[in-house]
Design goal:
The chain contains 19 helices and 14 strands. The longest helix has 37 residues. About 2% of the residues have low confidence. The protein is globular, with a radius of gyration of 26 Å. Helices cover 51% and strands 11% of the residues.
């Protein structure tokens, strides 16, 4: 079964995206327009991305002291993607968009992650950057920066981490000072000078676009000149690589943002990953605003009177930076999960093709009287897909990767409900997204990585050579457990905040969705056993969370947050599979004996029989508030 067949089934048969055209925003769309977008992206991915996936892995970005160089294929792919209009696909027509539903947009973009996740410059960050500005920027910031990002003229980044702080954003030390007494009168936003270092910045330096728009978290010192402790003092700034005027035209002046180094990564090697220095003085910037008639650096200003300091324009209110940035971070987390699912799926497809053509071994014929296994050595070897253990590995991959894809598209469908549904539906969708975002990011990045490991295993010795693509898929996917918040961060968010927010309202709402699916499945004989298993699993998850918090000790409860998240994620994906299976049964009643539909039911059965039972061991330590990890003394390692 191809990715396109799976995607079409999930979109049209399961999620019913054609019904979205009943909403005014999507009224001009139809299945024909949705298919046209999917066709275009599938073709571009096959022509501009897939053939160069190995190239960008072996020819890494390099810096000549002035510019970062990438293969021509990366430039061609980035140009083709921008010209397709997909950067602005979900935006209003006036911003060059198609007003495409988020669920269709994400499904279409999945083809690029599947074909070559390191090719083309990472459009995810550019569209996410622009989407944040559409939500939190001023009208001029949207016009000058976001609109040019959607058009492909400018690229975007997110600059959060710092070398000494990592994911602990409360410890960032990049500081922003008002640039002159009239800093608030700058049309592009209150103007500041930034100084600091940002680490792990994807696409932080390249020549794929005219400009790079960095969204930078920094702290504005208090009256005493000290940075405010914690996250309350964090503000958000637009820091362009090249300064622009109020029409978005480049002024010809470079901002004080300099590449300090390229990070050489395990995977995603086609995307430059950078350490950036802001305000180190390599590119001094004049103190006067562009366009006021003053001549360049001679105007002075900056942090030292000579132009030092990166110019940044504040987005939103002082101290509101992290809240604004979460708009981009949550969007990126779902996209990371979808990318992980696609890397897993690419490995699954490769191992499936290999298993079908690779001959080795013979089937078990009988068992001898002495208990040994008998095989007929006179018969020719069979394709390894005929061996039960290979089928196990393929079924595991199928259940993980197709389940992860379905979860990501379900979350994208919730985004559409949040933005275009009734007030009540929008509120429910928003709360469900809060609950599911940690799972949508973390679960695919763990289990689709495991799928890549099994894809290597199916290939045997060939799997760990560069003659086959599966080792690269594993290396690329290994980054996703760290991207956009590590597993531990997501787990603490789930058990420490999401399970208790609004008095447990999010848990109740998700539980009600599961209960509705369970009730429907009970009426289908083939699924009734799965329904009972899911009901028991959900009850066990909720009980474990209550037990973890029963002592009221956060440290004890969160010490086992990761196994809780694993159990929660498996239960959610089991629910997703039961939803899909209900749709499959409806289709089988019409299509009779379709082997592809039967394959989905088999994957569902595999997940319920082989995967869902895992949750017992995970939840046992959660419910018992096991302190093995919490109390381990560091000297004992």
């Amino acid at each position: 079964m191809s990715l396109r067949q799976t995607t079409d089934f999930l979109l049209y048969d399961w999620l019913g995206v054609e019904r979205l055209r009943e909403r005014p925003r999507f009224a001009e769309h139809s299945r024909e327009t949705f298919d046209a977008v999917l066709d275009l992206c599938e073709r571009l991915a096959a022509e501009k991305f897939a053939p160069f996936n190995r190239l960008v892995d072996t020819v890494e970005p390099w810096f000549d002291g002035e510019k970062v160089h990438l293969p021509q294929a990366s430039h061609d792919a980035a140009t083709a993607y921008a010209e397709s209009g997909m950067l602005a696909a979900a935006q209003d027509h006036e911003f060059g968009g198609m007003q495409l539903p988020c669920v269709v947009e994400m499904a279409a973009n999945a083809f690029f992650s599947h074909a070559g996740i390191g090719v083309g410059g990472g459009a995810l960050l550019t569209s996410g950057n622009a989407n944040l500005l559409m939500a939190h920027g001023t009208p001029l910031q949207r016009e000058v920066f976001a609109k040019n990002e959607f058009a492909g003229r400018f690229a975007g980044t997110m600059c959060l981490s710092e070398p000494q702080a990592g994911s602990s954003l409360s410890d960032i030390t990049t500081r922003a000072l008002p640039d002159g007494d009239d800093f608030e009168r700058e049309p592009l936003g209150p103007r500041y000078r930034l100084r600091g270092h940002k680490m792990w910045i994807s696409n932080g330096e390249h020549e794929l676009t005219e400009n790079i728009i960095h969204l930078v978290l920094a702290k504005i010192p208090g009256a005493d000149g000290k940075l405010v402790p914690g996250t309350r003092g964090i503000s958000l700034f637009i820091v362009p690589k090249h300064l622009v005027d109020e029409r978005g035209a480049l002024t010809g002046e470079r901002n004080d943002v300099a590449l300090a180094g390229l990070n050489h990564k395990l995977g995603y090697r086609g995307i430059p990953n950078t350490l950036l220095n802001f305000g180190e003085g390599r590119y001094p910037v004049r103190g006067a605003r562009p366009g006021d008639g003053l001549d360049g650096a001679g105007a002075g200003g900056g942090l030292d009177g000579a132009g030092v300091g990166a110019v940044g324009y504040r987005v939103g209110a002082v101290g509101d930076g992290l809240r604004c940035m979460f708009h981009m971070m949550n969007e990126a987390r779902i996209a990371v999960g979808l990318g992980a699912a696609m890397l897993g799926h690419a490995g699954y497809e490769a191992s499936l093709a290999y298993a079908r053509q690779r001959t080795q071994g013979r089937p078990i014929q009988a068992t001898t009287a002495g208990g040994s296994v008998a095989k007929d050595a006179t018969q020719p070897p069979v394709p390894i897909i005929q061996h039960a253990d290979v089928k196990r590995m393929l079924l595991a991959q199928k259940s993980w990767c197709e389940g992860a894809l379905a979860l990501a598209l379900y979350c994208a469908r919730l985004v559409d409900d949040q933005h275009t549904g009734s007030a009540a539906d929008a509120a429910e969708a928003g709360l469900l997204l809060e609950m599911l975002t940690p799972i949508a990011k973390s679960w695919p990045s763990e289990w689709c990585l495991e799928a890549n490991s099994l894809a290597i295993q199916v290939h045997g010795g060939y799997g760990y050579t560069r003659d086959f693509p599966v080792e690269q898929y594993w290396r690329d996917n290994r980054l996703n457990m760290i991207h956009e918040g590590t597993h531990g961060i997501q787990a603490n968010d789930l058990l420490g905040r999401k399970m208790t927010m609004q008095g447990g309202r999010g848990v109740e709402l998700l539980g009600a969705r599961l209960a509705h699916t369970i009730e429907r499945a009970r009426r289908v004989p083939a699924l009734a056993g799965h329904a009972e298993a899911l009901q028991a699993a959900w009850a066990e998850v909720v009980a474990a969370a209550r037990a973890a918090w029963s002592r009221g000790e956060a440290a004890a409860a969160l010490a086992n947050a990761t196994p809780f998240m694993q159990a929660f994620g498996h239960t959610v994906v089991a629910w997703i599979w039961l939803e899909v299976a209900l749709c499959v049964c409806e289709q089988l009643a019409l299509a009779h004996d379709d082997p592809l539909l039967r394959g989905r039911l088999a994957a569902c059965r595999y997940f319920f029989r082989h995967e869902l039972p895992r949750i017992g061991a995970w939840l046992q330590v959660v419910a018992a508030c096991d302190d093995t990890c919490l109390t381990m003394h560091e000297d004992g390692f």
